[in-house]
Input
Amino acid sequence: MPRFYVTTPIYYVNDVPHIGHAYTTVAGDVLTRWRRLWGDEVFFLTGTDEHGLKVQRAAEARGITPKALVDETAAHFRDTWDGLDIAYDDFIRTTEPRHYAAVQKFLQTIYEAGDIELGTYEGLYCVSCEAYYSEDELVDGNCPIHMRPVEHVVEQNYFFKLSRYTDRLLAYYAEHPDAVQPESRMNEVLGFIRGGLQDFSMSRTSINWGVPLPWDPKHVAYVWADALFNYCTAVGYATDEARFAKWWPVDYHLVGKDILRFHAVYWPAMLMAAGLEPPRCVFAHGWLLVGGEKMSKTRLNQIAPADLVADFGVDGFRYHFMVDQRFGPDGDFSYEAMVQRYNADLANNFGNLANRVLNMAMNYCGGVVPDERADGPLREAAASAFAGQIDALARLDFASGFGSVWDLIRAANAYIEDTKPWELNKQGDADAVARVVGDCLESLRIVALLASPLIPNAAHELWRRLGLTGRPEDERLPEAAAWGRLPAGASLDKGSPLFPRKET
Ligand code: MSP
Output
């Protein structure tokens, strides 16, 4: 059985979960469910990044210990993901003993290989990014991402000799042109590497909230030099070699564009230094903006996923962020657009089709799946929806992938308009009615199956109403997407609207 390993970033616990975090996490979940449908053994990892100055200061500001703060926020992240039906396999926290063991083994290995050396660091540090900037990267003297003042820092630090990896990284990417996606992001990464890589400071003596370096415990690992290793910790690095060998290298690191450099430059170099393979793919998506701005605590424009779930349901939430927002460029979130899209795609297209077809089956076919099929145009439409979905999801183009499934929904609605089963019924042509309804029911089955990674709850409910047992996720592709697998004679259930319309 092929194995597939996908990760989200681990989120900083100085913040509470918002829709920006949810965006990546839902994408990871959809991809996970999609690969599971294909029979892959999938490992989907998410978690929290709990060390660093930012967390230490957030705790101080609240007058609590860092440990108390991280326990509270990590639980909040977990609850949020559970509330979005995120099927993660593990939730890693960087304060766990297993992670300390992995970071220490990793750093010791790189140290012994000679790629970590002591030096003095003087630089400009943004605490919010937990990253250093050079003078010319600043905007009006501020961090280019947070637009807040940077701090002047002088420290004796250990350095990772990143400068030694310029050629190896370029060679690696020349051989693996898909290892950073989308393509525009690869160009950005190559440009950065070609610009010349500087060694980076990977330890701190000024704080103690972190993993001590095994050979010099006055130092703790810099938060990024600790966090990135989580991807290895979770699959057994330092604790279960066989398990690690099975899962590494990772198939996809899903990340936001702001942390691309860490994942596509620092991380592969550190892996190389430790004698491990770089990630197969780092996929960087854009930001979800609100009113044209990145969400942040200081701008008070963060939206909690639970607030939208209360209005649109879990499936409505998942649908919006995967289909209305393209996974790659920046996207602007607006509540009005979410209502519109929900009504158009879920309440109307999807909901109406389910409703109309089940109604006709009740009224004209005795509430059971008819024997007959027309094997008309929907057969072709279903095949092409599936092919389009495969093609788009291979590029993590969720909007087109599920757009392709919605093409089948539109085709089925149009087919009903064209064939007018109510007139066929009036004319007393029961066989013709059964054939049309049979094709529509078959299409609904395929829609439920192919949409299940995105809207698992509605897909399961539709499955049940079609008289099918089990769940769509128990099916296996590609066989299950073949035309004609809906068993005749099964009892149908009309049910109430799957996505009730929202007032605008
Ligand atoms: N802790 C680091 C990641 C370490 S991974 C080894 C971190 N955490 S974060 O919580 O600040 O950000 C995590 C992810 O959330 C990043 O991919 C970031 O791009 C994403 N997002 C945070 N705000 C976002 C939006 N407004 N829109 C989309 N994604 C955003 O960085």
About this structure: The two ends are 47 Å apart (CA to CA). The mean pLDDT is 95. The pocket of 5'-O-[(L-methionyl)-sulphamoyl]adenosine is lined by residues 9-12, 20-21, 23-24, 49, 227-228, 230, 255-256, 258-259, 287-288, 294-295 (CB under 6 Å).
